[in-house]
Amino acid sequence: xxxxxxxxxxxxxxxxxxxxxxxxxxxxxxxxxxxxxxxxxxxxxxxxxxxxxxxxxxxxxxxxxxxxxxxxxxxxxxxxxxxxxxxxxxxxxxxxxxxxxxxxxxxxxxxxxxxxxxxxxxxxxxxxxxxxxxxxxxxxxxxxxxxxxxxxxxxxxxxxxxxxxxxxxxxxxxxxxxxxxxxxxxxxxxxxxxxxxxxxxxxxxxxxxxxxxxxxxxxxxxxxxxxxxxxxxxxxxxxxxxxxxxxxxxxxxxxxxxxxxxxxxxxxxxxxxxxxxxxxxxxxxxxxxxxxxxxxxxxxxxxxxxxxxxxxxxxxxxxxxxxxxxxxxxxxxx
Length: 334
What we know:
This protein is an alpha/beta fold. Helix content is 33%, strand content 18%.
């Protein structure tokens, strides 16, 4: 199933609709019984306020890589082959665990779709809608409560890419490097005319991006407003520069499938703007690396997980040994 165009959302509206008819089939995670700071860990972590978030960590070494999924997408997108591609292949969580410690988590209200099986977030539900700063506050509280040692390398897909940038600007001492996987960018607004931007907002809102929907037996589906509700988040991302750090930016190549009523957007025009926005992300810091994933749609970590693993590996090595980053200019195997 393809994600919503323009929104860079990892869970299409069809998933949200399906949630209304399909009962959850995954049991809630048991409270954690092991230490999240070492060994394989998967469980709920109390972040205060009578709330728990599901956290999963593997591997050893530093810096720790933290994986942030896209809009409405659970952490399963990093460690399960949701494409059911047949032969087993290393997904991002396991691949990164081979060379450093890596953690990922479920935001409240996120889902994963495997065939007809819709699986709900393993974290406690919260009332929707929410904001980008809410996500940043949750992640910060989770990493502290679980004792996951920083500073970190943050990897964000889609809207998760904006979240990790906000985290880096909010807690600059806690972030050593970034990997942006076909990340949503506030620069889309500046690359479009005001009329085209308004049309983009309408398209996403009409597609359900801002609509709170229930997940049976759980709570609300993740909802973070695309338009006026997130002006502050986009302005904050634009106004707060990143400090010098290794940064890798990955962009998709296979175009989004547009809905029948696309507010006048053609596929070629849309792809041109999305590519330009990704290229601009690679100008946020000096020596950033940019690569186009030639065989991938929006979900590069599912289409070409090896490409994402390699980008993360290079950033990890760049943090450990800066000369390997600033002395090279190419990134990743295309």
